[in-house]
Structure formats: C-alpha cells, structure tokens
Amino acid sequence: MNTFKKNGRKLILILLLPIISSAQEGLSVHGYLSQAFAITDDHTIFGITDEGTFDYRNLALQFRYDTDESNTFIVQLSHSRIGISPVMRFSDDVELDWAFFQHIFDNGLSLKVGKLQLPFGIYNEIRDVGVLLPFYQVPFTPYGETNYTSETISGLQFSYEWFWGEWALQANLYAGEFSFVEWLIFENPIAGNVNILVEIAKVRNLIGTQLWLTTPYEGFRVGLNGMRGEIGDGVAFSDDLLGESDIQLFLGSLDYSKEDYFIRSEYGFFKTAQGVSAHTIYGHSGFRFAEDFSLNVQASLYHLQDLPLYLGLSRDEVDFFVDYAFGINFFMTNSIVLKAETHWNKGYLVEDESTNFSFPASKTIYSIISLSSSF
Fold first, then answer.
1. pLDDT band for position 243 (50/70/90)?
2. Cα separation of 145 and 123, whole Å?
3. Which pLDDT does position 6 carry in this prediction?
4. Do residues 276 and 242 make contact, with C-beta atoms less than 8 angstroms apart?
5. Cβ(206)–Cβ(177) under 8 Å?
6. What is the pLDDT of residue 7?
C-alpha cells in the first residue's frame, strides 16, 4: 500500500516535469505554508497535548497549466501535520490533494473531471489556506476530520452561473466518491488501558449540489448545499456497528464580508438510514480594529441525536462538541499573517479518554500560535 502511494507520487512528479520545463507561458505555480505551536491545559485534542507541539503545519504547492482560455490542468501536492491526532495514521509526508482537468464551454458551462475540490460551504475549497482563514483551522462543524465530509471528491462537477441585474446564482452539480478517517477511543475492560480504533470510511455513489446566491447588498451572499450517498466501512458504519447506510447532508450558509469586518454562520444537518442524525452550527465574526490587526470570535455546536440505544448507549442525544474561540491576527503583509488564538472546548472529541456518552463531557482549553504565508 505504502509502496503504491510512493510510486504514485513519483509518477505525478514525472508527469509534471514536461509541463514545468516546456509550458512556461501557460504555467503558474502557487503555494501556501502555515506553521503553528499548539498546547492544551489538560486533555489531548486535535493532536495537541499539554506538553505542546510544533508538529502542526499545512504546506501545499499547486501547478496550474492553461493550454488555452477553455482548458486547464490543475495539480496540487500537500504536506500536513496535526500533532499526534489519530488521523495521522493514514497520512503520508507528501500527498496528492487534487488533480483534475477543467473545460469551459462556449455558453459558460464549466466541467471538472478527476480528483477535485468538493464545493461545500464557505471554507471547504480553501480549508488549509491559512491567510484566508480567521483562525488556524476551519470550524470543526461542519468541516472537521471524522465529520462525514471531505476536502475533495473523485468524480466530476458541472458549474454554471446566471445573472439578473445585481443578482447572481452560481450552481455546482457533482457526483463521485470520497473517503475520510474515522476514529473511536475505547477502554479495554480486561487490561484497563485505552485503545484507539482508526479506520477509513468511504462514501460512494455520491451526488450533490451547491448553490450560491449573490445579492445586491454588497458583501452579502447565501449558500445552500445538499448531498446524498452510501456510507460504509470505517468505525461507525462497519458491519460490527451500524453497517452500510444511506446518508444525507445539508448545509446552509450566510456570509457577509466587508473590507474591515465579516459575519459568517453555517448550519448543517445529516441523517443516516438508521435514523441517526446531527445538527451542527457555528458562527464567527472578525473586525479589523487597526490597519494591521483584527479581532475574531467564534462559537460552534455539534449535537447528535437519535443514537441507537441497542449499542449500549445510555442516552439517545448528546452535545458532542461545544467550542468557543477568541483570537487576534497581525497582518505583517497581505500574504503573511501571525495568529494567536484560544479555544474553550467541552465535548467527547478528546483523544486520551474513551468515547463514552454515559460520562460527563471533557473540558479542555487549547491555544494555537501560527504563522501563515502564501505566494
């Protein structure tokens, strides 16, 4: 498996060499880097320990080659570290983020084919570009790992935009599949130690759409997302627990962005064939109180309900994740941002205790100092 991945990365680099060497005019290269130090006051969460870690970064290099005005090839390679997070068990030093071909037809219709960015919400297509994010990470609800979402999809996407005066509607229709890392912590009743089960969950036969309505009110837009597929494997939807299931996800987005401040909020909902469902919501706001400084606040909630009591759970609903954040950003230049943030968290996402909804939720405070740049 690892040999196959390494050979695949070598093949990608070999394929890029003729583009880099011979396609000077149509080639553009972009990239970004975010490096952070993170520490918690107690529990381990998002790969962060109470001893602190510098093993926290995102790095990407994107190659874009325009053969003409209608045809484009895009490849992005990345390196990501999330401390000692369980999701790192399935992460390589260098990975293929996306690689796709895009064609724009004469009528404005756009087609993408390959491994491409999943159009989902405000941040999914820029979730690792630190200079564009108010905090180091995108909100866990609804973008976080193990959250039944993905940064990319292997498949195809059609896009089109309509205009009516000052109104505009952008529509994206996509189909394909994606996978994500899912983990569960449980206590061995015999040995008494804590074990982590980490598996790859897969969403197949996925079809979805994203709509963005741009209004005449400058900076204000409304988004609506919906997708449906079949989820299996992983932890929750393995044959030992829930088994394969149909899954539906919906997301509504409000985005009001001006030059010196923004207010954004998104509400998500997902439901499986077994009836398990979740409501997720976050809101955050930022204000540039000086030429080079901004203040950001955020609140997030992930509420699970209709949990299957036959699995031994003591209740059928729980606030799985509650998080409040405060941060200050220093814009050294337009492409270099220094961030300092603190999060107050309560929930069942800690990585050093068993996931047991019968017990009270764990409380954790974690802080991140990061430097983000792009070119």
1. confident
2. 14
3. 52
4. yes
5. yes
6. 52
How do residues 295-327 score in pLDDT, each as one tens digit? 999 999 999 888 776 455 566 788 999 999 999
Q: Which one has a higher pLDDT value, 187 or 373?
A: 373
CATH class entry, domain 25-374: mainly beta
Q: How far is CA 239 from the centre of its chain?
A: 27
Q: Taking Cα atoms as reference points, which of 364, 170, 348 lies closest to residue 255?
A: 170
- Say if residue 266's pLDDT is above 80: yes
Half-sphere exposure of 31 (CA within 13 A, CB side): 10
CA distance 289 to 266: 25
Predicted confidence (pLDDT) at residue 359 exceeds the cutoff of 60: yes
Longest dimension (CA), the chain: 69
Residue 339 — pLDDT band, cuts 50, 70, 90?
very high
pTM passes above 0.70: yes
Domain ranges of the chain: 25-374
Cα Rg of the chain, angstroms: 21
Nearest Cα neighbor of 321 from 285, 363, 268, 352 is: 363
Q: Nearest CA to 157 among 174, 139, 182, 133?
A: 174
Compute CA distances 266 → 25, 171, 289, whole Å. 40, 18, 25
Q: What is the pLDDT of residues 120-172, one digit of tens each?
A: 999 999 999 999 999 999 999 899 876 778 899 999 999 999 999 999 999 99
In angstroms, the CA 337 to CA 183 distance is: 32
